[in-house]
């Protein structure tokens, strides 16, 4: 594996934003997650929970609720606007003002024809869904007090609305309220406080389930408007409810960070009269569970502690499979760190600013495992605040460190950096074609900037001291409309590889400025791509953890890749639940490929035999203790290092030292606000 | 007639009540507990033991109401039999011989004539595997029935009786063993297994401890080792089963029970807190804390009004802790047996009434119910002759920390009728106290206490008035510290007149004069360290007896300072009767204990009995009798003044009785035979009583044979509910003697006066013993025959023409 001098970087204060809302589209198996900063993330549950798309947030946009209508995604927020998103260009498509004050909730009927929003002023507003837009239809009977939650009856004729202290049932056709269900306030001191019905679910058998701020989950009969059962779930608030598709199970998320499952069960075996019974309690969060989704096989929860948790229901999945494992998604599945290999610089991307750091230096020598004395401390060179109200969606730093570029949904900005007495100048005139980019990348000689644009096209801009010129726009032949999320320019400046959300990887010849080839499409989305500097082999790692090596010269998979596919990857490798986000090469040893995910980094030595299914995958420690001949016999291609955890970036610098950017989850946890008080045993 | 004067070893209670679940009778008036080799029937209203169901020859392992007849009860035992009893009368109805040791018994109304037993999986006894078998009980009129039709239902079950339970209406049976819950549906003949992982992530242990089934819903509650309770539902699916988890207990849940209507779930564990969970509203729970000791079983009466919790310290009858560290003692004042009770307590147990009088808190610290904690324990206690003073030693030994030792002296307070702490001496010695005794001289002015310790010293403590403080009374202080050649003193003993103190230092016995504290003489009989020391009493007070570890019993004459005699015996316990010259020596031989009673002056033992019980007897006491027994038989004369009680290794309290005594008891217990559950028409009473009286008159002791109990029941209860029958009986005899010809008015007056009498009796009792008041109250409720309506009925009957009745009786 070799010895490296490691720059252990812990000064990237990356702080994810709290999860606010969630909507699961069971047809496409996509989960939309809205964060507190207004960012929207789309996870593909069919493809190993891969974070497919990220729509950056915007100042002042606070998404309170999300709603899928077919393939269309709507959000509503406390700014009083309804937004539909363009998921192909990863930007809001349009925004409609509802004129009812802050909007708390949005819900569509099961037919997909109407959208109902609940407003602060007590109105439920109905919007008609047109092909391109939505149009205000009418208000339902106006109530006193805000509408916090809404749920359509599956037939589309009734709407239940959760309000302060009560639940209203509306006839969707006439707009009149038909029932008024009074929700009891909490006991004791909270008696004087209004109870907020945070979440409501209207089931097809006219059962209404409500979760409120008094910590109750209540089951109501929607036909008669009577209370059937009260389950006191927590001392604090029940913030979210989610019902499974078949209405046999429902989950409630609480302020204590617990998710409580209720199941529709017959009280005696072999009988038909079923009732909702509280069954399991999941505690995977430290803070409020603000958003919940109930998929066929799992409960997805998210909240203040910023992690997305997928908890499989063990009665629905096969035990001891990859599907039955609990998943916590803490880091984004894309890179927020850009490393200038030649200059030893690191660029950190935050939603509202960029930070440029120079890594520290040390000339000491030590034994493996020692920490060396630092001669020069790492230094923050530049903090660049973004312009405008849109958040940064991508950024790049040129390998020489002289150029810096970032993009929002509305504009791309390019900067020239001088290091002798650090100064930054904005390149004012950018070509018109470079309006917004999903991904940015510099060529290895820093002479070109590649920016992925709409419909998977890539814009090439040539850079020099005087001006920036649009050279060419590369377009794939497939006509995919999905955005490119990965770009890689080869070391020799000949190749450019671009991967999009349709799982396609196009390789362009930059000398000829045309498409060279398209890598055969694998069913899973690529998470990292790289082109070997010497052999020009393209290495692709997919969300399903498969690794492919594709020879650009022969336009076919290499021998090694075929062998790997034939033998299959080690089961432990396939069981990892975070995607590989970086690939890099060692200039010293061309057979080495560096990969990393959140919990480990790995050097694949292509010259060594592949691990057998029965051998140990993580064998670094045991190998060290073995005598030399034994060690050779036991060593295999995958050399995995878990010394560093919660990795955001692992990169090899020019001087053969390794930069490891860590962001310990504990540091993130410590920056969260205090959770609600809970009695702990023996305290 | 049976031979008079035969001495028998009689079980006097004390064995563990808590090894198995208690069972309520269906009318909630009786509670049945397996206790050693018998089943005890308690009245729920008076809390007293009504009678024992005796017959099993080994440990009773299960008690179960017969589902088809709620007046009958099955009991199973490790002796391989199942017995069917009428528990109201204490009659053995049938014995089913199964042939294998039985560990628990189950039945349900759904399975007529079938009982389910847990037996070892292989026929050999030592097997660790157990199976649940169904036994078809053969229909037969015989008393002794062989039931060999066994069919296995579940294999690999737990021997813990709490781990198997019948579900709703007996449609399925749930069994938990280790990490697996198994539910067997009888109709479908299908079993479902639900395994759990060994540990959860937080380190809790998931092992099943106990199971309970909801009576109405299909819900199984399981208790686990980490204190969690799981409620399983939908368990008729292989995969879609589900459970919810309740967590309050911090240690293993040892017992779970649903209330009869299924509205509540009760759980208990080592925390000694009874937790009541609302079914389907589990966040609401109620607690009954400070129950005194860890809960091992919970039972609920069928009407749901009574809960019964059994505790690990045997506290229903509360006799014997699992570890008795103090000697057995007699409280000279209350004539009660004193020994370790609740943790940190001494219990006073009345042998006459077979009842716990009270617990004296010695340690006076909160006892934390958690396993693995080292807490203060009372290790030694002693009374002085008059019962004015009680000395206790408590110690706490932690692994790393130093030994904590307290010597406490308690004075008896006449006003409060209890012991009051007088002096606390912390760290009286530097090491554990090995023995402690009071000077027994009744006439001596000063009271003296001697204690010996492993630190090589013995100390004498004396009560001295404190000069400088006015308000405080006299307190205890150290009078003398003695040692002998750096040897460790093992036991100490005062002579009867208090003029000599003998302290043994390994093989040397030193005799000191407490007046001047000079070493008078040393006696030695090497090799072998002295185990017990005992001065003779009365005429034999010149003798000092000692037992050594080398199987030697020596008797020294203190006048000559020489060995009078010695004999080779492995005496495990030697004690002297305070009221006579007699001494008792328990010898342990080949796993059995023999008893010899002798006088030091006579070479011939007064009484000897081989194989009194199995195991070693380490605790015994002579209890003075309240009234002297007049026994002419020579062999039983030693029992005239006092009775010998001893504890077996199974913590059974045993005693010796003479036949005469037994007969007397039997006769008095005869009056209890009519049970209060029998409908008590005046007619029945009149006739039944009369006939019984006749029997007793004519046959005398023969009446014992009428009860089919093979060993004869030793009922040791008096008064209580029988008072009523006595009353009615008196009334009846009154009516007879007055020929029923008096005016109605007159009889009514008499009635009232009788009633008053009853009331005053109750008051009298309550004044003497506070607990008794409860009893007398309960007495009224226990006998439904005396409700007002019935009394009126009785009166009405009387107003009728009774002459025919008188004629019938005369005939």
UniProtKB/TrEMBL annotation, chain A:
GO MF terms held by the record: RNA binding
GO biological process: maturation of SSU-rRNA from tricistronic rRNA transcript (SSU-rRNA, 5.8S rRNA, LSU-rRNA)
Domain Anaphase-promoting complex subunit 4-like WD40 residues, every copy: 140-186
Entry coiled-coil feature ranges: none
Source organism of the structure: Dicentrarchus labrax
Name of the protein in question: UTP4 small subunit processome component
GO cellular component terms listed in the entry, alphabetical order: 90S preribosome; small-subunit processome; t-UTP complex
Domain of life according to the entry: Eukaryota
Pfam family, one: ANAPC4_WD40
Gene this protein is translated from: utp4
UniProtKB/TrEMBL annotation, chain B:
Start and stop residues of the WD repeats: 53-95, 246-287
InterPro entries: Beta-prop_WDR75_2nd (IPR057644), Quino_amine_DH_bsu (IPR011044), Quinoprotein_ADH-like_sf (IPR011047), WD40/YVTN_repeat-like_dom_sf (IPR015943), WD40_repeat_CS (IPR019775), WD40_rpt (IPR001680), WDR75 (IPR053826), Znf_C2H2_type (IPR013087)
Subcellular location: Nucleus, Nucleolus
Chief location bin: nucleus
GO biological process terms held by the UniProt record: positive regulation of rRNA processing; positive regulation of transcription by RNA polymerase I; rRNA processing
Kinase found in the keyword field: no
Keywords per UniProt: Nucleus, Repeat, Ribosome biogenesis, rRNA processing, Transcription, WD repeat
Species: Dicentrarchus labrax
Protein name per UniProt: WD repeat domain 75
Segments forming domain C2H2-type: 33-56
GO molecular function, one term: RNA binding
Comp. bias regions, Acidic residues: 749-764
N-terminal signal peptide: none
Pfam families, alphabetized: Beta-prop_WDR75_1st, Beta-prop_WDR75_2nd
CC terms in the record's Gene Ontology section: small-subunit processome
Positions of region (Disordered): 745-791
PROSITE patterns referenced in this protein's UniProt entry, alphabetically: WD_REPEATS_1, WD_REPEATS_2, WD_REPEATS_REGION, ZINC_FINGER_C2H2_1
